[in-house]
């Protein structure tokens, strides 16, 4: 929750002088002092802020403070300049009222600082954004530029503004800054050429010399040494706490931000340099023959450099410093200048150059910060004008006169708006009011600005008058015309009162300003008011080859010679002050009244007399009195009712009657004491700010409640319309859904109906069908029955007919038999002897005929192994039945044999022989039956590989195969080609074909094989034969059966030899060289696959293990 605070919290002294009790000048000063001692430099008088210059930085201008004061009520926090700035800004933003901040006070009282604080506060709280920030930055950065060129150190203020400044900051409807316009008032240009003791020229000269780079200085033909320049006073060239070099950089940077071009900055600096150079041009007198004195330039070097700088022809300027041309009605008169006049001309040029440059700077800045849109905007004006100045120890001159006149006008506007206007308003409005006396300075303003006999008017008159015009003649005039004025004092006036007043010298006059008496020395008034620059000089300047200079001296254009005198300085100033006042009167004023606590620019010192003086002339006591006696706030009835009508049920939301009555009703309804407000004719007056706060607070709460109400209603409305929309949509959706559901339901019913219908129809159809079927069956049954019946009838008839026919046939047969019998009985006696035998033979013949003809179609096949034969039909054919198959078999075997060739026959013979040898004796035999005997497995006669071997064997090869020769030592086999011819058996190397052994068949005694399925065989040689030397051969072959059969056959056919013996036994002896070794065949478990293994067991035993064949 927001904590409610008030300026009354932790208040030191009294924050608002209106609350001061008792109110006296002493208590007023005491309150200020007390607060000042506690660093409370701000105090209110109602809505006016009194600001004491602390002369040191206080931690109350931080961004946090800005936030603290932002959007808070004026009296909510302790007095601060931010509160005033916030109030003004919000009033501008929210109530669309143009504002002006009027900052008044003596020189050095803190006006310029206050104006900067206001601007920085507004910049901090207004809108943000790239564009807005740029505008803000430019507005803020215009300050350092103007301060450098327009401020100077004075005895009262190290940074005293020597020009008046009024800045309008423009805002859009949101309160975002759009741009600004700066107006400047009368720069104190006399300072350029001469500075009072203890003061300096404008800051920029010192900044340029100490801050610019060597390079820049060289370009500008300047020297860093201040003492070189006549225009720079030396006694306070360096100011404590002022870093000119750093400030120069700040200024350059600020110029860049504001939007000055590089060359523009350069031109400006060139002009500043030119002014310094100008000061160094000195003149010496030279007597002419006519007796007059003429001036000559002492040292032309400075002139030359300056001319180079500005692009002016040296001779032109030199001439302009020596002659003065006066043009009058087509006549041109040239007079020479004496030394004094030359110096005057020089200084006038310097002053004009500088002041015009300053005005140009303001124009240029305005160009940059100008609002970019033409849209309607609101304005906040900040006025920081030079403060009231009185010099006790030196002359007050024309400048002080002008400055003080301006302050007089400001005081006037303050009085107008706060004192007179307020009191007059009470009277006007018929509010009971006891008048409060205050000093109205209108009379002083009149003394100065009156068009007929005002001091400024008379000064102008003097300046324009032909004849000799001097400051003295001007004073004389004043003495005659203003003598009677109660605020004008002069020694020579007719008012004898001052005749003996020695404090009033003869060449002076004194004005009793609102802020005190000021003694003005008339010397220089006429000149300064004239502000004369010889035309020769302005023309010389116009001729310069420098764009900026040319712009600054447009009257130097020879094409546009204007013989009219330019308006005087006083006239110009009066006019611009008049415009300013008019401008300020259209805006809502906010006052900051600055007070200087001491004359020493020191912190912590509070000089009672000085403060008291300021309090007096600023009319602050009167201000408090009026404030206390009067009403803090007033407002016309209509806007008041409009603003607060929500605080009362009867006036809210509309009041039908007159606004005043509405406000009366409203106020009566509120818990506010009656003495707190009064009803005027057109306005309500509220005595206390607190009452206004109370109203504002109530309004704020009310607005919050209203906002809540509006929100509530709006939300309600929104929800309701949303709900209605939902409802409407729901109805639509429901309607659609129902339609859809009904459609579905209808379709369901429809399809159900269809199903039911189809079932019913089906059922009916089936029923009908059944009936029809039944009918049909009945009809069919009838038909069948009738058919059966007819059939039965027919069959019975047929049977009857057949029976009849059989009977008939039987009768016929019986008749035939009877006839036969009768015939046989009759003819028996004629052929009984051999008829029986003939009938028998005939019958037998017929039966046999039928049998054989039958056999023809039932004969078995021609295969010799087909044993079938058709069955015999009669038993008496037993013999035939036995003999016929045998004959048929023999015949078909003969037929079978007759198709055999000789070779095939030989093969079959071999096969037959093999069968005789091995059948049922060797297990290998059955597997060999189906293998045809090929004989020459190696194709020895045709294969070129065996050509040599073939030629080595001269006989025809009966068998050629690869066999394994079993090594007798270890039982391993070696492949050998085995050849069998009619005469011998040859063993040859398989690879080379070289004959290893050749055994003539007669040398073979026998062949031994096992009974098992192995391919081992031993060729046993006849003892004593030539071949037997090496011993028997133990071989193994896949074609064992064929080899042995062929050996057996060949051995048999070989001439004069016995048949070769074939021993079949599982144990036989083989002659190996000298030993006899027993080869034994055993049945072993299949090892290494299904192969037969042969092992030499010992000297006597070679064991062959044959896997058992399944
Ligand atoms: N609020 C402030 N805080 C600190 N110093 C201040 C303040 N106001 C003024 N001063 C000091 O007083 C000097 C003079 O203030 P300035 O505003 O230039 O006076 P004025 O414009 O009234 O002649 C400033 O240079 C600064 O040193
Ligand atoms: Mg100032």
Characterize the structure shown.
- This protein has an eight-stranded mixed beta sheet with strand order 23-22-21-20-26-25-24-27.
- The protein is elongated and about 230 Å long.
- Helix 5 (130-150) crosses helix 9, helix 10 runs antiparallel to helix 13 (339-369) and helix 14 packs parallel to helix 21.
- The longest helix is centred in the last third of the chain and has 170 residues, at 689-858.
- The mean pLDDT is 86.
- The two termini are 112 Å apart.
- With 1110 residues, the protein is α+β, with helices and mostly antiparallel strands.
- The relative contact order is 0.06.
- The protein contains 31 helices and 31 strands.
- In percent, how much strand structure appears in the residues? 15-25%
Radius of gyration: 77 Å
**Main sheet: strand order:** 23-22-21-20-26-25-24-27
Q: Note the overall shape.
A: elongated
Distance between the termini: 112 Å
Hetero groups in this structure are:
adenosine-5'-diphosphate, magnesium ion
Strand-pairing-aware structural class: alpha+beta
| Count of DSSP strands | 31
Largest β sheet strand count, sense and barrel closure: 8 strands, mixed
Number of helices: 31
* Chain-averaged pLDDT: 86
Helix content: 40-55%
Uncertain segments: none
Keywords, separated by commas or semicolons:
single chain, 1110 residues, alpha+beta, binds adenosine-5'-diphosphate, binds magnesium ion
Describe the structure in brief:
This protein is α+β, with helices and mostly antiparallel strands and 1110 residues long.
List the helices and strands and how they pair.
Layout: H1 25-37, E1 42-45, E2 48-52, H2 63-69, H3 81-95, E3 99-105, H4 111-125, H5 130-150, E4 151-152, E5 160-161, E6 164-171, E7 177-185, H6 190-193, H7 203-211, H8 214-219, H9 244-258, H10 262-280, E8 283-287, E9 293-297, H11 300-310, H12 314-322, E10 323-328, E11 331-336, H13 339-369, E12 378-384, H14 398-428, H15 442-449, H16 455-464, H17 471-481, E13 488-490, E14 508-513, E15 516-521, H18 525-530, H19 535-542, H20 547-552, H21 569-585, E16 588-595, H22 608-617, H23 620-629, E17 633-636, H24 637-644, H25 659-669, E18 677-679, E19 683-686, H26 689-858, H27 878-898, H28 902-918, H29 925-929, H30 947-952, E20 957-966, E21 973-981, E22 984-989, E23 995-1000, E24 1004-1009, E25 1016-1021, E26 1033-1036, H31 1040-1053, E27 1061-1064, E28 1067-1072, E29 1075-1084, E30 1093-1098, E31 1101-1107
Parallel strand pairs: 2-16, 3-12, 3-16, 24-27, 29-31
Antiparallel strand pairs: 1-2, 4-5, 6-7, 6-12, 8-9, 10-11, 13-14, 14-15, 17-19, 18-19, 20-21, 20-26, 21-22, 22-23, 24-25, 25-26, 28-29, 30-31
Helix pairs in contact: 3-4, 4-5, 5-7, 5-9, 5-13, 7-9, 10-11, 10-13, 12-19, 14-15, 14-21, 16-17, 24-25, 28-31
Bound molecules: adenosine-5'-diphosphate (ADP) and magnesium ion.
């Amino acid at each position: 929750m927001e904590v409610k605070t008030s300026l009354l919290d932790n208040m030191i002294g009294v924050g608002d002088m209106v609350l001061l009790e008792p109110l006296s000048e002493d208590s007023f000063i005491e309150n200020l002092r007390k607060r000042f001692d506690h660093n409370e430099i701000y105090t209110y008088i109602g809505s006016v802020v009194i600001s004491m210059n602390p002369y040191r930085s206080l931690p109350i201008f931080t961004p946090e403070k800005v936030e603290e004061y932002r959007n808070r009520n004026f009296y909510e926090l302790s007095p601060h300049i931010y509160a005033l700035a916030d109030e003004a800004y919000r009033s501008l933003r929210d109530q669309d009222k143009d504002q002006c901040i009027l900052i008044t006070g003596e020189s050095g009282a803190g006006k310029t600082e206050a104006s900067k604080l206001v601007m920085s506060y507004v910049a901090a709280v207004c809108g943000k954004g790239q564009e807005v920030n740029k505008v803000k930055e430019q507005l803020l950065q215009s300050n350092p530029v103007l301060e450098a060129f327009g401020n100077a150190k004075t005895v009262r203020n190290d940074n005293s503004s020597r020009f008046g400044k009024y800045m309008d900051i423009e805002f859009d409807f949101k309160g975002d800054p759009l741009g600004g316009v700066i107006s400047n008032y009368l720069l104190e240009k006399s300072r350029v050429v001469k500075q009072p003791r203890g003061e300096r020229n404008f800051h920029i000269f010192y900044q340029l010399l100490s801050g610019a780079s060597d390079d820049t200085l060289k370009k500008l033909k300047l020297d860093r040494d201040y003492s070189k320049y006549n225009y720079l006073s030396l006694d306070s060239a360096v100011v404590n706490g002022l870093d000119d070099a750093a400030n120069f950089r700040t200024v350059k940077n600020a110029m860049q931000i504001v939007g000055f071009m590089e060359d523009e900055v350069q031109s400006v600096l060139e002009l500043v340099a030119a002014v310094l150079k100008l000061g160094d041009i000195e003149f010496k007198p030279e007597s002419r023959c006519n007796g007059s004195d003429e001036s000559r330039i002492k040292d032309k070097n400075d002139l030359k450099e300056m001319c180079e700088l500005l692009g002016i022809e040296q001779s032109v300027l030199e001439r302009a410093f020596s002659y003065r041309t006066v043009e009058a009605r087509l006549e041109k008169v040239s007079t020479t200048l004496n030394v004094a006049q030359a110096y005057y001309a020089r200084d006038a040029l310097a002053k004009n150059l500088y002041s015009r440059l300053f005005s140009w700077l303001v124009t240029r800045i305005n160009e940059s910060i100008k609002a970019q849109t033409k849209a309607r905007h609101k304005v906040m004006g900040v006025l920081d004008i030079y403060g009231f100045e009185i010099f006790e120890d030196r002359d007050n001159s024309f400048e002080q006169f002008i400055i003080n006149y301006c302050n007089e006008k400001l005081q006037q506007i303050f009085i107008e708006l706060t004192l007179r206007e307020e009191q007059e308003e009470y009277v006007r409005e018929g509010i009971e009011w006891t008048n409060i006396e205050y000093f109205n300075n209108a009379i002083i303003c009149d003394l100065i600005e009156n068009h007929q006999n005002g001091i400024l008017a008379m000064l102008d008159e003097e300046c324009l008058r032909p004849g000799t015009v001097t400051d003295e003649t001007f004073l004389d005039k004043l003495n005659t015309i203003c003598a009677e004025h109660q605020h004008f004092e002069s020694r020579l006036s007719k008012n004898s009162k001052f005749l003996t007043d020695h404090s009033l010298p003869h060449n002076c006059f004194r004005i009793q300003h609102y802020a005190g008496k000021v003694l003005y020395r008339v010397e220089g008034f006429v000149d300064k008011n004239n502000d004369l620059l010889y035309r020769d000089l302005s023309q010389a300047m116009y001729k310069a080859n420098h764009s900026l200079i040319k712009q600054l001296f447009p009257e130097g254009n020879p094409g546009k010679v204007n013989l009219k005198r330019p308006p005087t300085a006083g006239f110009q100033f009066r006019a611009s002050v008049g415009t300013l006042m008019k401008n300020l009167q259209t805006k809502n004023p906010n006052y900051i009244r600055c007070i200087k606590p001491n004359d020493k620019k020191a912190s912590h010192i509070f000089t009672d007399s000085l403060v008291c003086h300021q309090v007096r002339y600023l009319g602050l006591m009167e201000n408090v009195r009026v404030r206390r006696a009067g009403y803090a706030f007033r407002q016309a009835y209509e806007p008041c009712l409009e603003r607060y009508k929500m605080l009362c049920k009867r006036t809210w939301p509309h009041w039908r009657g007159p606004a005043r009555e509405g406000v009366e009703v409203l106020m009566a309804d509120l818990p506010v004491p009656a003495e707190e407000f009064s009803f005027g004719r057109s306005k309500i007056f509220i005595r206390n700010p607190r009452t206004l706060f109370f109203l504002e607070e109530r309004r704020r709460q009310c607005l919050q409640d209203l906002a809540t109400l509006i929100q509530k209603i709006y939300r309600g409305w929104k929800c309701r319309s949303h709900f209605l929309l939902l409802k409407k949509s729901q109805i639509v959706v429901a309607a659609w859904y129902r339609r859809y559901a009904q459609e579905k339901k209808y379709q369901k019913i429809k399809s159900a109906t269809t199903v039911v219908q189809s079932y019913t129809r089906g059922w009916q159809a089936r029923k009908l069908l059944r009936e029809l079927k039944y009918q049909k069956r009945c009809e069919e049954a009838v038909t069948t029955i009738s058919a059966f019946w007819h059939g039965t009838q027919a069959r019975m008839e047929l049977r009857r007919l057949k029976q009849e026919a059989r009977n008939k046939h039987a009768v016929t047969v019986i008749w035939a038999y009877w006839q036969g019998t009768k015939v046989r009985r009759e003819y028996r006696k004629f052929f009984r002897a051999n008829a029986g035998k003939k009938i028998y033979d005939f019958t037998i013949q017929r039966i046999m005929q039928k049998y054989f003809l039958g056999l023809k179609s039932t004969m078995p096949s021609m295969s010799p192994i087909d044993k079938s034969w058709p069955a015999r039909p009669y038993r008496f054919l037993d013999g035939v039945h036995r003999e016929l198959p045998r004959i048929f078999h023999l015949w078909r075997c003969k037929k079978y044999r007759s198709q055999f060739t000789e070779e095939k026959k030989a093969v079959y013979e071999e096969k037959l022989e093999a069968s005789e040898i091995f059948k049922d004796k060797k297990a290998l035999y059955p597997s060999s039956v189906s293998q045809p005997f090929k004989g020459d497995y190696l194709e020895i006669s045709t294969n070129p590989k065996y050509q040599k071997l073939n030629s080595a064997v001269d006989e025809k090869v009966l068998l050629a195969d690869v066999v394994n020769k079993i090594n007798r030592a270890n039982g391993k086999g070696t492949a050998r080609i085995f050849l069998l011819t009619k005469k011998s058996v040859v063993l040859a190397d398989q690879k080379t074909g070289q004959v290893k052994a050749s055994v003539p068949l007669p040398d073979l005694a026998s062949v031994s094989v096992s009974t098992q399925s192995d391919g081992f065989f031993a060729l046993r040689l006849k003892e004593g034969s030539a071949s037997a030397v090496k011993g028997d051969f133990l071989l193994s072959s896949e074609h064992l059966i064929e080899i042995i059969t062929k050996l057996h056959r060949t051995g048999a056919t070989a001439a004069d030899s016995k048949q070769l013996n074939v021993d079949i036994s599982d144990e036989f002896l083989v002659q190996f060289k000298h030993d006899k070794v027993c080869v034994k065949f055993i049945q072993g478990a299949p090892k290494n696959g299904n192969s037969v293994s042969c092992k030499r067991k010992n000297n006597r035993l070679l064991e062959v293990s044959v896997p058992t064949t399944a």
